[in-house]
Amino acid sequence: MRTISLCLIVKNEQSTLCSCLESVREAVDEIVIVDTGSTDETKEIAGRYTERIFDFGWRDDFAAARNYAFSKATCDYILWLDADDVLLEEDCRKLKELKLSIAEQVDAVSMIYHYAFDEFGNVTMSLRRNRLVKREKGFRWHGAVHEYLAVSGMVINSDIIVTHRRVHRHSDRNLMIFENRMRRGEPFSPRDLYYYGNELSDHQMWEQAEKIYERFLDTGEGWSEDIISSCMKLSDIGERLGKPQKQLAYLWKAMDYDEPRAEGCCRLGAYFLKRNRLREAAFWYRLAVRREKPKELWGFVHDAYWTWIPHLQLCIVYCGLEQYTRAFYHNEMAGRYRPDDSSVLHNRRYLEGVLRDEAL
Fold first, then answer.
1. What InterPro entries does the annotation carry (predicted)?
2. Is the pTM for the entire model greater than 0.85?
3. Which domain holds residue 310?
4. Domain end (from 258, 284, 303)
5. Which of 95, 172, 186, 247 could form an SS bridge with 181, CB 3.0 to 4.6 Å?
6. β-sheet with 155-164: strand ranges across
7. How many domains does the chain have?
């Protein structure tokens, strides 16, 4: 059986750390906690689970902190989590089974990350990340912000899910790191530009975000998933800033890098719906419904676009086209994902009345 070191970097995580460690403690053989300056009870909570607690002076570099944590691991494999992540019971069981079955030649294991949820508990954003790596390979983290773990060799994709339970709201921390780097004149990689654009977008700094995303695309480099995501974000910014030509152009541009995805199809549907071009809107929403969500996609997947959103929007479109039976069908399909959604309930009452009157 292989052994696993769990590595976390933490700062002021007293509200989440216990849940994280409780959820995974049965599946790991060692817990390594690297504290970057907590002023609450984080270290005291960590002390209930491990003696391997280390201090690391924060220097605006997440990769440096994670690499330091990895350097303290002693087991065969290293698992990394954030303090607001958990393994649900089924996923903890799968991890324990993986310890028993993992082949010696496996260098890394990716896991699914359920990153965000709606008010009904449905996953709204997910992605795949390398989570478990062979210690002896010495894999390193890269990037001061939104760091990534570079792996090579044999990588297997597992069905283990890491569940994110966000407690903290967005802070200015990452944005300030990027802006301080920009003021110091540090070079930005294409990846840096993409994530800087994300931070600006998260802070609703639309004009600045637009410039940075476009600068990223102008490099002609970067990961295709980041390019597609930037096109989606630039389309959204184009709508916000009243630039419909840009809004549409970036949706078409995204298709230069992959076949149409539900995220883009729904945006195109919304574009035409807003202009009361209902048949065109219906085409794109129907295409979104037909698309099968990729199982091995590594970029961010906005699950709502692959599930209920196109159905709910088709209900609106078909109502506008006075095709009420179709509208009712798609409203009920949306209801499978969100049975208590107020819009679904309202639509059902309205459409039941319309269909009843039509039958008379």
1. Glyco_trans_2-like, Nucleotide-diphossugar_trans, TPR-like_helical_dom_sf
2. yes
3. 276-360
4. 258
5. 186
6. 53-55, 30-35, 4-10, 77-80, 123-134, 108-117, 155-164, 85-86
7. 3
Does residue 263 fall inside a structural domain? no
**Contact between residue 216 and residue 190 where contact means Cβ atoms under 8 Å apart:** yes
- pLDDT 10s digits, 256-280: 999 999 999 999 999 999 999 999 9
User: 249 with 301, same domain?
Assistant: no
Question: 43-80 as b/e, with b when 16 or more CB fall inside 10 Å?
Answer: bebbeebbebbeebeeeebbbbbbbbbbebbebbbbbb
With H, G, I as helix, E, B as strand and everything else as coil, classify residue 297.
coil
H runs (alpha helix) in the chain: 17-24, 42-46, 62-71, 89-101, 173-183, 190-202, 206-218, 224-240, 244-254, 262-274, 278-290, 309-320, 324-337, 342-359
Which H/E stretch holds residue 108? strand 108-117
Pairing of β 123-134 and β 108-117: antiparallel
**Domain finish residue from 164, 180, 201:** 164
Decide if 39 is inside a domain. yes
CA distance 104 to 77: 11
138-162 pLDDT, tens digit each: 999 999 999 999 999 999 999 999 9
